[in-house]
Amino acid sequence: MSTAVVLRGRTVVPGLAEGEALVSPETISGWGGIDPARGIVIERRHPLYGQSFAGRILVFPGAKGSSGWAGFFQATRLAGTAPLGMIFVTTTTKAALGAVVTRVPTVTGLDQDPLTVIRTGDRVRIDADLGTVTVHPAPAPHTVTHPSTTRRRP
Amino acid sequence: MKLSDTDKAMLDGAEGPAVAAAMDLLVRYGQALDAEQLCDVRNVAGTMTQPSPAKARLVREGGWHKAYAVLNLDSDGDFAIPDMKVPTCQLQQSFGPDAEGIAPYPKEFVALQTDAEAFYSRKGVNILATCTPYQVGNLPVRGEHVAWMESSAVVYANSVLGARTNCEGTASTGAASLTGRIPCWGNHHTENRLGTHHIDVRTPVVGPLDWGMLGYFAGGLVQEERPVVTGTLARPDPLDLKHFGAAAASSGGVEIYHLPGITPEAPSLEAAFGGRPVPEAVPYGERERRAVYEDLNSQGNDPDVDFVLLGCPHASLDQVRDTARLLEGRRLSSGTQLWLMVPRALRTTADRNGWTQTIERAGGRVLTDSCPAMSRSVPPGTKVFATDSAKQAHYLPAILGIEAWFGTLADCVDAAVTGTWKGDLR
Fold first, then answer.
1. Contact A10 B34 (CB under 8 A)
2. Which residues fall within 8 angstroms of residue B338, CB to CB, at 6 or more apart?
3. What pLDDT score was predicted for residue A140?
4. Domains along chain B with CATH numbers
C-alpha cells in the first residue's frame, strides 16, 4: 500500500469530495468538447475521447474553447452527469465560473503539479474548505482505461 | 473579496431576490477567481434565448423567470426577473422563422426562441442576435469595462476597441445584466493586457484568408496568452481583424492581442509589452503559412463539395457585397448549397442594396441570427463543406462529423458554382 500524498492550494469552490481521479493531460473544451447528457468527452482528438467524468474527480490543466464552457458544465449538474470535484492548474474565467455553476468542490494553485502526482484511478479526497488534496495512489500498474468507460467511435 | 456598500445591499436583498441571487453568483465567481473586488459595467453581451432541451423543460416548469434564474444566475430560487439594470444584448442564437424550410431545425425550438425574444426584449435585452455585436452598433469605448461572452467578440472588444472584458459565460453575464457588476480580474487590469509573445511576420499578409491563417498560427503558439504581431502586414480592415481574432480564439484561447501601430493599446512594439523586455521573435514565414493552410485543410479529403458556409463570424457588409459580386450571373451547382450568415440588422441593408437578391438568384441563401455550429444544422446529406473561416474549419468537423475545406471567398464561391473544391494557397 502506497502512502498518501497531500497537495496544498487554494479554494475555488468550497466543500468535500472523495472519489476516483480522471486525469486529463490536455485542456478540455465545453462547447464541442463534452456531451452533458452522457457526461463524456466528445472531442475526437482529445486523449480522454469517449471517457466519462461523471462521478469522478476531474483533474485537468484548464479550460479551452468557447465561452459556453461554464454553461456546458452547469448542464452536467442539471443532467446528473457532473464530476464529483475538480482540480485544475490554470485559473481562467471559464474554469472558475464552470466550477462555480457545476457546484462541486474545486481547488487550484496546488504546491505540486496535480497532473503528474495524480493518475487516473487514484483515490482522491478534496477538502476545498482547506484547499487540500489527499491522493491515495491506486495499486500499480496503473491502467489508463477505466473498466466502466466505453470508447465510442462516431 | 471586498464588496462595496452597494454590492452588500444588493446581496442582502435591497433590490429584490433576483438581484440578490445575481450578486450571490458574482461573489461565488469572484472568490473562485480570487478577485479583489467587482467593477462597474454598463455593456453586457450574453445569451438567454438560445433553445436547449434543458431550457425547454425549465420554461415548462416555471416560465422564463425560472429559466433565467437557473441558467443565467445559477440560482434555485423562485422569483421574478426584473428589467435589465444595464444595457444588455443577446448574442448569436439558433435559427429563427426566416430559416424555416432552409436550415433543418426543430419547429418547437423556433417557437421557443421566438417566445424567448418576446420575453427578454420586454426585460430590456437588445435582440441583436449576432456573434458580432460590434458590427451592428454595439461599440464600447476604449478603457470601458464590459462583460461579454463569445470568444470572437471578446477578442475584438479587447484588442480592436480597447474595451476591457474577460471571456464571460452565461451565468456571469446574466448576473452582470441585473447588477451592473463583474469581477475585476484578468483583462480588467492593465498589467494583464500586455504582450507575452512576439511574432514577426515575414511573408505578405493581405486579406481575410491570410489574416485568419495568421490568427490561427498565433493562437496555436500562445494558447491563452497575448501575442504581439509585427512585420509584413498590410493595414487590416475590420473584416481582417474579425477573422484574425476569431481564428486566434479557436486554435488557442486568445482574448487580447496587439498590432503595434494599428490596435489602440500598442502605439509601438515596446508599448505593447509595457516597457518589459521584448521577447525573442517567433517567425511567421512562407513555411509557417503553408503549414497552417495544410492544417486547416487536413480534414478535407473528398473534393465534391455539398455545402459552402460563409459568414463566420457573421459577415460584414463588405463580405455580403463581395459574395454578391462573385455570384452575379452565375448559378450554384445542383448538388451544392451556399449559406451566408449575417446579422439581421445588416441583412436589411444587404436587401436594400440588392445583394441578397443577387445571391438568392444564384441559388444561395442569406441567413441570420445563427450559424450551422450554434444550431447544429447543415443542409441534409452534407458530407463535405467549404468555408472561408478558420474558426468554422476548426470546429464544424468536430461538431458535425463532416469534412472541411478552407480557402478564400472566391475559392468557396467557385466550389459552390462548380460543386468541386479547387482551392490552393497562392
1. yes
2. B307, B308, B310, B327, B332, B359, B362, B363, B364, B365, B412, B413, B416
3. 72
4. 5-190 (3.30.499), 194-295 (no CATH), 299-418 (3.30.499.10)
